[in-house]
Fold this sequence. Notes:
Blueprint: E1 2-8, E2 17-23, E3 28-34, H1 36-39, H2 44-63, E4 70-74, H3 80-88, E5 93-96, H4 101-118, H5 131-143, H6 145-148, H7 157-205, H8 209-236, H9 246-254
Parallel strand pairs: 1-4, 4-5
Antiparallel strand pairs: 1-2, 2-3
Helix pairs in contact: 2-3, 5-7
Amino acid sequence: MTVEIDDSGTGDIIGPAFILFWRRETNTLVKKEVPLELYQQKNFNTLTKEYIRELFKEVFQIMDIPPTEDIWLCTGPCFDEARKWLQENRYNYHDAKIEGYLQTQVESTYLDYLIENYDFPKEKAILESGKKRFFAIFNWVVDDFPRRIKFIKSGFDKWQSKWKNEAETLWMKKMVEISSNTKEVGKIRMNERIQNKQSYKSNQNTNHPSKSFSKKTNSKKRNKSYSTKISKSRKKYPKKKKTYSKTHQQASNSSKYKKDPMQKFY
């Protein structure tokens, strides 16, 4: 029987770390997490190594690993206290570079955690740890520094001495660029609105002969249509001649002598 042990996330600047134990022959895989909070302490180096040693004790009991079984252990410094425990208990372990199935599993476990818990973009998730993955994660932190700083392994000396200040200054530069760009866009839109208003007013003020002519012709057409309607209505409903009674005629004749009432007697 052979057991391989590897780690991931111990050198990355965000998130927890993971330790995976894999027995080849039975394909038994045990995953253990080293909490982020330990990496945010000043003495994280001691705390995490002791925590990993306790994980070894726990998992070796779960998997029932005897001292005679071959153990292939990653050469990372995070296993320093675990190595001491293996030596003290006379386990048959060997320092080795872990490759293949277990390496893929342990790196995928770390990246899956970032994607699921931190909304880290899948397209930026690089399986192989190193410089490329470091800057992919670092630039992602810079994009929203005030909110993502809580995911940082702030106990790292390099973070405190270099990368924290650099991340903050880069984020501030981006904010200045964004604000200046939004101001420029706002000015452009305001100028466009002013130009549109001015062009609209100029179009309203200018006299177009074609439009005035069309207005006149329209008014003429309206008058003609109105007159034709009146003529048609007259044909349908002709005016009635006035008929007067005799009394009305006598009254009208008498009106001739209103100026001089005695005139009719001469």
